[in-house]
Amino acid sequence: MNNLSPRRTGGRAARRASRAAPLDTLMRPVRPGMEGGTLKVLSDAQIARIHDTALDALERIGLSGAPASGIAYLTAAGAVQGDDGRIRFPRALLEDTIARANREITLFSRDGLNDLHLGGARVHYGTAGAAVNMVDVDGRNYRESTVQDLHDAARIVDVLDNVHFCQRPMVARDIADNMEMELNTVYACCTGTTKHVGTSFTEPHHVGPAMEMVYMIAGGEDKFRERPFVSNSNCFVVPPMRFATESCEVMERCIEGGMPVLLLSAGMAGATAPSTIAGAIMQATAECLAGLVYVNAVKPGHPCIFGTWPFGLDLRTGAMSIGSGEQALLSAGCAQMHQFYGVPGGAAGGASDSKLPDMQAGWEQMCSNVMAGLAGVNMVYEAAGMHASLLGFCHESLILGDDLIGQALRCVRGIEVDDETLALDQMEAVCIGGPGHYLGTEATLARMQRDHCYPKLGDRSSPKEWVEKGKPDLVAKAVARKEEILSQRSAARLNPMLDAEIRKRFAIHLKG
Fold it and tell me: Is the pTM here over 0.90, yes or no?
């Protein structure tokens, strides 16, 4: 039977200090890679129908627009180019590719402390997107995003426990040349965080210089290939069912350079994908299956993520509805397709249509983040900071998102049922000759950090305490936290000699 008397040795201050000390990663109430998969929005029969229909679509309709190199790779693998130029995929080819595909991959961090092990229903949350504006919460304004904003976002991600990776969330609008912008994107993210970085390239010839830069940061090409800490977010299709020619060529070069690939299909339900949730999931699945064949035709076993990202539309206006319940269902359904195929997968979650970090943003971000996590999405992209249907990014919202994702992860962790958690012995001791409550007992104190996820900025004080503290405002607290983070030097900064070498080789726009 557990001892239920409060500990007295060392006093209250010592006990508080002990409880406030950072927990070992495995003792934390939430952490990267927790198992989801308890939410099933599709039945087994529905999953089978989506799968069969996707294979029918690839066999009957196929995809157009493949570059010459892609046609060569795909036809050599067993795909068939018809007289109409479309590449069609026999069922046997698709089934063989699925059977041989990676079941698990690791997205590496630069320091080895935040590696992401993808597979099964293990859940990770991070940023993503291509917002063209920054949200100014003080003035309630939008302005064009800059490379400094991008670097600052990466620096913030680096210190947030519940934001596990940094895929480029915005475009550096202050750099006119596309190649320079994309090289500076890699530099800004990699010098802001040691967590895994995702980025994009618009032209195939941009890949070579970017690979040169990441090889330099890694300390050599062999070291990068061993632990690639940057991946390519690749919109390899232009839905519906058309390869994006230049992006496919980019993908081929990234594969050759040893960079993992996110196969990203981002159809808009009602515009570039069927308006129904089932139809949008089916089309995204079909397109990503074609991408899976493509990647493995270029290099069998190359690490890639099955990135079904169907988005919703408000059919009254034609505007994106990224914060809708339909979006949450789309991503949760996609998670089940990833698990059906047994491949690492990603989907969108946590973005908002709201223009500011307000109540609308809160309900929209939590709805899709929780559902994506419970469904077991390996990589939940755009999970923090994204507003205005992907047009605006907000540093303060990114910080608030750390609290929000913490609560989402606690839902993912679920309920443990065993002798200790059922607590019959505790109940007996409390009720028979005990204090009649569980406050302050050894068992309660022992589990208060392991079982409960506490917000860092969220306010749980009483109205009286809130007034006494000066009525603190949540967004104001996030502003203060941002300023605190950015006042410190980046822990991910490069050593001065390497930084000077990179700046000599490339046109780096960030001030040294």
Answer: yes
